[in-house]
Design goal:
The protein has helices spanning 6-12, 19-27, 73-76, 84-102, 113-123, and strands spanning 4-5, 31-33, 36-37, 43-44, 49-54, 57-63, 80-82. By secondary structure, the chain is of the alpha+beta class. It has a domain at 1-86: RNA-binding S4 domain (Structural Genomics Hypothetical 15.5 Kd Protein In mrcA-pckA Intergenic Region, Chain A, Roll), CATH 3.10.290. A five-stranded antiparallel β-sheet has the order 3-2-5-6-7. It has a two-stranded antiparallel sheet with strand order 1-4. β2 and β3 form a beta hairpin. α1 (6-12) packs across α2 (19-27). The longest helix is centred in the last third of the chain and has 19 residues, at 84-102. The chain is elongated.
Length: 126
């Protein structure tokens, strides 16, 4: 196997749960191959650099192996190598997100009847 479609590769490497989600991410410009926006049908080769933006964060990876079938997660992790800068940035963002939870003000209990009326009025239902 010399090359594979980028949407199949992203699905096989378990960056997206379905191939249609990988295709949609390509169409929205969330996938870059060698600093170029990638269409779903773009062919990727060993050694290509990908920048992937998904719910898990921003990944910058180098392709080590190609696959178009989805296997176990342990096999999928051998298909690519994440750059050190990407890994550090994702860990930093996760730490910041965790720290922000400490300052979050949560309600102490259920809203009263008056509070519920205000919420409904604010949402524009009534």
């Amino acid at each position: 196997m010399n090359s594979v479609r980028i949407d199949k590769y992203l699905w096989a490497a378990r960056f997206f749960k379905t191939r249609s989600l990988a295709t949609r991410a390509c169409e929205l410009g969330r996938i870059q191959s060698n600093n170029q926006p990638a269409k779903p049908s773009r062919e990727v080769h060993i050694g290509d650099m990908l920048r992937i933006t998904n719910d898990g964060g921003d990944f910058e990876i180098e392709i080590l192996l190609l696959s178009d079938i989805r296997g176990p997660a342990s096999v999928a992790q051998t298909l690519y190598r994440e750059t050190d800068a990407s890994r550090e940035l994702r860990q930093k963002v996760a730490a910041e997100r965790k720290a922000m939870r400490e300052f979050e003000v949560l309600p102490t209990g259920r809203p009263s009847k008056r509070d519920r009326r205000h919420i409904i009025q604010f949402r524009g239902r009534c």
